[in-house]
Amino acid sequence: MHDIRAIRENPAAFDAALSRRGIAAVSSEVLAIDEARRAAIHAAETAQAEQNKASREVGAAKGRGDEAEFERLRALVAAKKAEMAEMQAKAKAEDDRLGALLMGIPNLPYDDVPDGADEDDNVEIHRWGTPRAFSFAPKEHYDLDGVKPGMDFETAAKLSGARFVVLSGGVARVHRALAQFMLDTHVEENGLSETWTPVLVREEMMLGTGQLPKFGEDSYQTTNGWWMIPTSEVTLTNIVHGLTVDEDTLPRRYVAHSQCFRSEAGSAGRDTAGMLRQHQFEKVEMVSITHPDHSRAELDRMTGCAQGILERLGLPYRTVVLCTGDMGFGARRTHDIEVWLPGQNTYREISSVSVCGDFQARRMNARFKPAGGGKPEFLHTLNGSGLAVGRCLIAVLENGQQEDGSVELPEALHPWLRGKTRLSADGTLE
């Protein structure tokens, strides 16, 4: 959601920012609706004032015995009442039009976001680790002998269809251990507050974080109107939905491990093999609610939290700033962290950390009271994966694979596996 006053004050700057995202100028349409809305509000207020004035004069005319004036004034009261109702209805209709238009306009990129059309124009800002030199041709995760017994796509297809998986045995254990390792690290070392939230939410929660109305086809809706969360960003961010919090409670830093559900609309044919792109998956999500002055620094802090998980696991990665043409709908700046997958011989996204400014807060009407007094201000929100559990599992399996089909597991993970250090070629932990 955008500040209509900012658009009124500098429509050219608003259009220029949108043009960086490849979106045509829209300020003239916004301001035309806004003007019609304000004119209707003014007309309604004028009609109400005239109705009130005439209502006061009706009694006086009656008292004077001036029947003609009494009837004229009574008719005027009725006419102004009808006019006021008509203008109020028009104002509401224009307000709804304006809200719907603004809800569909993406966030404005920060000035330091690189211009570009797509992922080819993203800019690398950090790289860690050196991809391992294999003495054999590395395989993708689903082709490893030690993984095959515990990663069943056929049974999942029977149960649910394509893009689902059944994990079992040692593979399932490693998957669970990764989630616990991430949670404990974020809570004990990074200072995040562990949170558990529902995976079913009301429609207004999806509106608040920007998944609706524009991207409804990307998510699943139940028959009674609930939506299944695509990420716990939705629930964690909406904790402050409709609230005005005290400044001294900021920042609020949450982390949650949850199931996530995505229809993957528009991704037909992409990553169909293995469990890289699933309809149901798990993610450890970070969300920060901050003072506006601190959100940009918080983006770097959260990026470091996600990078730290990969470094502890010994997984090579690179971090890129998304260009204006590749950023998500609600972001002002996004850092994507891409982990090295030797089976694909490339880096693939494992975390996306974004600062949204007050974009989501305006949709949620989430504010804070300044400690020094004054008018409440909109909060700033940030979100980021810390990390996607399934993709991290893929990276651990592929980077730790051995020529005999077994997998050497990262040392950092051993305590969460009760001392187990490897996945054998037959799929057992030992």
Tell me what you see in this structure:
With 430 residues, the chain is of the alpha+beta class. It is elongated, with a radius of gyration of 28 Å. The protein starts with a helix and ends in a 7-residue tail after the last strand. Helix content is 38%, strand content 20%. The chain has helices at residues 4-9, 11-19, 27-64, 67-103, 153-159, 169-188, 203-209, 233-237, 295-313, 359-364, 389-399; strands at 123-128, 151-152, 166-167, 193-194, 200-201, 220-221, 227-228, 244-246, 252-261, 280-290, 317-321, 333-341, 346-355, 367-369, 377-378, 380-388, 407-408, 422-423. Helix 6 (169-188) crosses helix 11 (389-399). The longest helix has 38 residues, at 27-64. The strands form five sheets. The chain has an eight-stranded mixed beta sheet with strand order 1-11-12-13-16-10-9-4. A three-stranded antiparallel beta sheet has the order 5-7-6. Strands 8-14-15 form a three-stranded mixed beta sheet, with no helix packed on it.
Side-by-side strand order of the widest sheet = 1-11-12-13-16-10-9-4
SSE-based structural type? alpha+beta
Runs with pLDDT <50, length 5+?
A: none
Radius of gyration: 28 Å
Beta-strand content bin: 15-25%
Percent of residues in helices comes to 25-40%
Largest sheet: 8 strands, mixed
